[in-house]
Amino acid sequence: MARSLYFALILLSLIWGGSFFFIKILLPDFGPWTVAFLRSTFGLATITGVMLVLRKPFGFRAIPWVAMIIMALVNTAIPWALIGFSETRLTSSLASVLNATTPLWTLVVGVVFFRVATTRMQWAGMGIAFLGLLVLVGVSPTALASVDLLGFSCMLAATLCYAVGTHLSKRLSGGLSMYQVTFGTLISAMAGSGLMALTLERDSLAPLASLPTLGAVIGLGVFGSGVAYILFYFMVQKGTPQFATTVTYLVPASAIIWGFTLLNEPVSWRLLAGLVFILGGVYLANRSGSRSARQAAKRQESSAGSGSGAESEAAALPAKPSR
Q1: Angstrom distance (rounded) from CA 81 to CA 313
Q2: Tens-place pLDDT, residues 109-143
Q3: Please, which of 105, 267, 285, 294 could form a disulfide with 125 given CB 3.0 to 4.6 Å?
Q4: Are the beta carbons of 181 and 169 closer than 8 angstroms?
Q5: Torsion on CA atoms 252, 255, 260, 266, rounded to nearest 10
């Protein structure tokens, strides 16, 4: 792997880890829906600027807007608001560790609703990660009383939204570029979260006149939503999707560092132990899934190579464009 890929990986983990820090800063001035609105607005401005500079087509008519809006609400606006609310009751470090369970819920949703095949190793990884959640919460009455269950539940609900949204976005992204998907997602999330913010919160935007608050919005929107997408897809294109998703393992550690150094949040043994179990389970489950996917791809290539000349010629023909 090139050094630029590792640099992008570390930078992305710091940006996404810092997102929990920026949300924590904004919550005293804005409600969760307003934070989601500001984040998507600044992210939309960023991706729009990038597409204009790179002369990437927006393709408004090619985007299935009804499906895009549903996906954006489930995969972006709602979980962003839930994360914001959970951080009013949890530390940013704990929220980031819970966020690392997203790949596990993605696996569960895939099995239950999308008929995704799984292996025993993946279920073993899920069991290890669930043990990590028990370590985080604690099994004694005293430990349970110290954890805000509402905030804890909302954070897990956000990861469940991400899981459902991941499968929806996978089905939606066919025929669209990564720029179009990002643009459609952020503009839909901005509209949805903005409507909820006007209905439920009606916060004043006057705090944006403060440099620290404006800096947090820029960090969350421009970098956490705009630049982050570019870095992630850079690693996918120049490296591999498996390499890009390893950022999942680094984000909680980055968030703990940000929370400890900038917010003076305590780092307990339960937080670190839970992090080890959760990330270990996520790694085990995804490593097994990646291996199974590679084996399936090899079997498909092998069967395609042993086919008849007519089949090979037909396979070489370009597919019909989707409408």
Answers
A1: 50
A2: 888 887 777 788 878 877 887 787 777 766 555 65
A3: 285
A4: yes
A5: -50
